[in-house]
Backbone:
Protein backbone atom coordinates (compact mmCIF):
# COMPACT_ATOMS: atom_id res chain seq x y z
CA UNK A 1 0.00 0.00 0.00
CA UNK A 2 2.87 2.37 0.87
CA UNK A 3 4.52 1.63 -2.45
CA UNK A 4 1.28 2.53 -4.25
CA UNK A 5 1.00 5.84 -2.36
CA UNK A 6 4.66 6.65 -3.12
CA UNK A 7 4.16 5.77 -6.79
CA UNK A 8 1.00 7.88 -6.96
CA UNK A 9 2.81 10.79 -5.28
CA UNK A 10 5.70 10.48 -7.77
CA UNK A 11 3.30 10.48 -10.73
CA UNK A 12 1.41 13.52 -9.43
CA UNK A 13 4.68 15.35 -8.73
CA UNK A 14 6.01 14.54 -12.22
CA UNK A 15 2.78 15.68 -13.87
CA UNK A 16 2.77 18.88 -11.84
CA UNK A 17 6.34 19.69 -12.82
CA UNK A 18 5.73 18.93 -16.50
CA UNK A 19 2.52 20.99 -16.50
CA UNK A 20 4.38 23.86 -14.90
CA UNK A 21 7.08 23.67 -17.56
CA UNK A 22 4.49 23.58 -20.34
CA UNK A 23 2.54 26.47 -18.85
CA UNK A 24 5.69 28.57 -18.70
CA UNK A 25 6.48 27.92 -22.38
CA UNK A 26 3.08 29.22 -23.50
CA UNK A 27 2.96 32.99 -23.80
CA UNK A 28 -0.49 34.47 -24.34
CA UNK A 29 -1.25 38.09 -25.17
CA UNK A 30 -4.16 40.16 -26.31
CA UNK A 31 -4.75 43.16 -28.53
CA UNK A 32 -7.67 45.51 -29.11
CA UNK A 33 -7.66 45.94 -32.88
CA UNK A 34 -10.71 48.23 -32.79
CA UNK A 35 -8.93 50.83 -30.69
CA UNK A 36 -5.90 50.61 -32.98
CA UNK A 37 -8.00 51.07 -36.11
CA UNK A 38 -9.80 54.04 -34.52
CA UNK A 39 -6.57 55.99 -34.35
CA UNK A 40 -5.13 54.99 -37.72
CA UNK A 41 -4.85 58.02 -40.02
CA UNK A 42 -6.03 55.97 -43.01
CA UNK A 43 -9.38 55.42 -41.29
CA UNK A 44 -10.52 58.99 -42.06
CA UNK A 45 -9.99 58.46 -45.81
CA UNK A 46 -11.80 55.12 -45.66
CA UNK A 47 -14.79 56.72 -43.93
CA UNK A 48 -14.87 59.60 -46.43
CA UNK A 49 -14.73 57.24 -49.41
CA UNK A 50 -17.44 55.05 -47.94
CA UNK A 51 -19.70 58.04 -47.24
CA UNK A 52 -19.20 59.31 -50.79
CA UNK A 53 -20.12 55.92 -52.22
CA UNK A 54 -23.18 55.69 -49.96
CA UNK A 55 -24.24 59.19 -51.12
CA UNK A 56 -24.02 58.06 -54.77
CA UNK A 57 -26.24 55.07 -54.06
CA UNK A 58 -28.66 57.20 -52.05
CA UNK A 59 -28.90 59.76 -54.88
CA UNK A 60 -29.77 57.00 -57.36
CA UNK A 61 -32.37 55.59 -54.99
CA UNK A 62 -33.91 59.05 -54.52
CA UNK A 63 -34.06 59.53 -58.32
CA UNK A 64 -35.87 56.21 -58.64
CA UNK A 65 -38.22 57.24 -55.82
CA UNK A 66 -39.00 60.54 -57.56
CA UNK A 67 -39.72 58.70 -60.81
CA UNK A 68 -42.02 56.35 -58.87
CA UNK A 69 -43.90 59.26 -57.29
CA UNK A 70 -44.32 60.93 -60.70
CA UNK A 71 -45.72 57.74 -62.21
CA UNK A 72 -48.14 57.29 -59.28
CA UNK A 73 -49.33 60.90 -59.53
CA UNK A 74 -49.73 60.65 -63.31
CA UNK A 75 -51.62 57.41 -62.97
CA UNK A 76 -53.95 58.79 -60.28
CA UNK A 77 -54.59 62.01 -62.19
CA UNK A 78 -55.37 60.30 -65.50
CA UNK A 79 -56.79 56.99 -64.34
CA UNK A 80 -60.40 57.91 -65.07
CA UNK A 81 -59.68 58.82 -68.69
CA UNK A 82 -57.46 55.82 -69.46
CA UNK A 83 -58.60 52.85 -71.47
CA UNK A 84 -58.39 49.50 -69.78
CA UNK A 85 -55.31 48.51 -71.81
CA UNK A 86 -53.42 51.75 -71.00
CA UNK A 87 -54.38 51.52 -67.31
CA UNK A 88 -53.03 47.95 -67.14
CA UNK A 89 -49.87 49.07 -68.91
CA UNK A 90 -49.35 51.96 -66.45
CA UNK A 91 -50.02 49.68 -63.47
CA UNK A 92 -47.45 47.22 -64.82
CA UNK A 93 -44.91 50.07 -65.20
CA UNK A 94 -45.51 51.08 -61.57
CA UNK A 95 -45.18 47.51 -60.29
CA UNK A 96 -42.03 46.99 -62.38
CA UNK A 97 -40.56 50.20 -60.99
CA UNK A 98 -41.39 49.09 -57.44
CA UNK A 99 -39.55 45.83 -58.15
CA UNK A 100 -36.56 47.68 -59.61
CA UNK A 101 -36.41 49.96 -56.56
CA UNK A 102 -36.56 46.99 -54.19
CA UNK A 103 -33.87 45.12 -56.14
CA UNK A 104 -31.72 48.24 -56.29
CA UNK A 105 -32.04 48.70 -52.53
CA UNK A 106 -30.90 45.11 -51.93
CA UNK A 107 -28.07 45.44 -54.44
CA UNK A 108 -27.04 48.78 -52.97
CA UNK A 109 -26.89 47.35 -49.45
CA UNK A 110 -24.70 44.49 -50.68
CA UNK A 111 -22.53 46.84 -52.75
CA UNK A 112 -22.05 49.12 -49.75
CA UNK A 113 -20.96 46.20 -47.59
CA UNK A 114 -18.57 45.02 -50.31
CA UNK A 115 -17.15 48.53 -50.69
CA UNK A 116 -16.65 48.76 -46.93
CA UNK A 117 -14.73 45.46 -46.93
CA UNK A 118 -12.69 46.59 -49.94
CA UNK A 119 -11.75 49.84 -48.23
CA UNK A 120 -11.11 48.44 -44.76
CA UNK A 121 -9.23 45.28 -45.79
CA UNK A 122 -5.87 47.07 -46.20
CA UNK A 123 -6.21 48.50 -42.67
CA UNK A 124 -7.06 45.10 -41.24
CA UNK A 125 -4.11 43.57 -43.08
CA UNK A 126 -1.80 46.28 -41.78
CA UNK A 127 -2.91 45.68 -38.17
CA UNK A 128 -2.64 41.90 -38.65
CA UNK A 129 0.91 42.22 -40.01
CA UNK A 130 1.88 44.36 -37.01
CA UNK A 131 0.34 41.85 -34.60
CA UNK A 132 2.23 39.02 -36.33
CA UNK A 133 5.50 40.97 -36.11
CA UNK A 134 5.02 41.74 -32.40
CA UNK A 135 4.02 38.13 -31.77
CA UNK A 136 7.22 36.83 -33.34
CA UNK A 137 9.46 39.49 -31.76
CA UNK A 138 8.08 38.90 -28.26
CA UNK A 139 7.74 35.11 -28.56
CA UNK A 140 3.98 34.86 -28.05
CA UNK A 141 2.24 31.55 -28.60
CA UNK A 142 -1.26 33.05 -28.89
CA UNK A 143 -2.56 36.57 -29.24
CA UNK A 144 -6.28 37.14 -28.79
CA UNK A 145 -8.13 40.10 -30.27
CA UNK A 146 -10.41 41.62 -27.64
CA UNK A 147 -12.44 43.37 -30.33
CA UNK A 148 -13.10 40.23 -32.36
CA UNK A 149 -12.90 37.62 -29.65
CA UNK A 150 -10.68 35.54 -31.96
CA UNK A 151 -7.12 34.25 -32.07
CA UNK A 152 -5.17 36.50 -34.43
CA UNK A 153 -1.69 35.01 -34.05
CA UNK A 154 -0.45 31.49 -33.48
CA UNK A 155 3.22 31.09 -32.66
CA UNK A 156 5.57 28.41 -33.94
CA UNK A 157 5.44 26.52 -30.65
CA UNK A 158 1.62 26.27 -30.60
CA UNK A 159 0.00 22.86 -30.95
CA UNK A 160 -3.06 22.59 -33.16
CA UNK A 161 -5.46 20.00 -31.77
CA UNK A 162 -8.16 20.56 -34.39
CA UNK A 163 -7.62 17.14 -35.98
CA UNK A 164 -7.75 15.43 -32.56
CA UNK A 165 -11.01 17.19 -31.67
CA UNK A 166 -12.51 16.24 -35.05
CA UNK A 167 -11.51 12.62 -34.45
CA UNK A 168 -12.99 12.71 -30.94
CA UNK A 169 -16.26 14.02 -32.37
CA UNK A 170 -16.24 11.45 -35.15
CA UNK A 171 -15.95 14.02 -37.89
Residues:
Amino acid sequence: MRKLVKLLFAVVLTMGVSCGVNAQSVKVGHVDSASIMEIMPERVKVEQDLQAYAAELQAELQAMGAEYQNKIQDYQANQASMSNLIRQSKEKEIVDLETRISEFQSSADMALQNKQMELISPLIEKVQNAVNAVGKEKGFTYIFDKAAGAVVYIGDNAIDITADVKTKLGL
